[in-house]
Amino acid sequence: MIQVYTGNGKGKTTAALGLALRAAGAGFKVYIAQFIKGKRYSELDAIKKISNITLVQCGRACFIKNKPRPRDFVLAQAGLEKVKKALARKCYRIIILDEVNIALKLGLLMIEDVIGIIKSAPSATELILTGRYAPPEICKIADLISDIREVKHHYQKGARARRGIEF
Question: Can you list the domains of the chain with their CATH numbers?
Answer without folding.
Answer: 2-148 (3.40.50.300)
